[in-house]
Amino acid sequence: MNQIPEMQQLLSEVESTFGEPINSSKDFMALSVSISMKLKDTLGATTLKRLWGYISERTLPRLSTLDILARYVGYDSFKDFKGKLHAEDSSMYLYGDNVLFSDELSVGENVMIGWMPDRLVKLEYLGEDRFTVKESANSKLLVGDEIKATFFCKGWPLFVPGILRNGEYTPPYIAGKTKGLNLIQKEVAK
């Protein structure tokens, strides 16, 4: 059940509302308390663990459980949540001033990207969709890191399959997870 897109989106929005990833028993207990305090309704930690797949018990969640989670993230019900999801256009072409493709760059060109809160990174294009970090303010990307990116899109997160740091790859990284990139600027050559 938790593999359907609506369910995955709901769980993702619950984590955003909660304010951090949910991946330990302590997190599930804290989420249970948060839901209870916000809604005056209860969902036990075990129920939440089942929904996230933290424990492998194959049961379908009750509609009342999904309704509580939907209310936690600001909807009237799970039906309302799904209706709003389906009303949004979930597919689009990327073009215009809001997107910069790496194949539009020349080797050595710099790109500034930024995202909330106050993250700013200057990247130098190395060719073949590869960039090196030249400057970094308030970001987990460090000067000297190398990333791969085929494009940058304003309003959308930057998904990096891994950061090459000190000769080793990190796990995948997402910049601007909540509100996406808010700055994409190709540096003008001097």
Mean pLDDT: 87
Structural class: alpha+beta
Major β-sheet, in short? 5 strands, antiparallel
Distance between the termini: 55 Å
The share of residues in helices is 25-40%
3D structure, described in words:
- A hairpin with an 8-residue loop joins strand 4 and strand 5.
- The chain has helices at 5-18, 25-39, 45-52, 63-72, 78-87; strands at residues 99-101, 110-115, 119-127, 130-137, 146-148, 151-153, 158-160, 164-165, 168-169, 173-175, 181-186.
- The longest helix has 15 residues, at 25-39.
- The chain folds into two domains: 5-87, no CATH class; 99-186, no CATH class.
- Helix 2 (25-39) crosses helix 3.
- The chain is built from five helices and eleven strands; from the N terminus they run αααααβββββββββββ.
- 30% of the residues lie in helices and 25% in strands.
- The chain is α+β, with helices and mostly antiparallel strands.
- The chain has a five-stranded antiparallel beta sheet with strand order 5-4-3-2-11, with no helix packed on it. The protein has a two-stranded antiparallel ribbon with strand order 1-6.
Which key features would you list for this structure?
elongated, alpha+beta, 5 helices, 190 residues, single chain, five-stranded antiparallel β-sheet, two-stranded antiparallel ribbon
Task: Give the helices and strands, then pairings.
Layout: H1 5-18, H2 25-39, H3 45-52, H4 63-72, H5 78-87, E1 99-101, E2 110-115, E3 119-127, E4 130-137, E5 146-148, E6 151-153, E7 158-160, E8 164-165, E9 168-169, E10 173-175, E11 181-186
Antiparallel strand pairs: 1-6, 2-3, 2-11, 3-4, 4-5, 7-10, 8-9
Helix pairs in contact: 2-3, 4-5
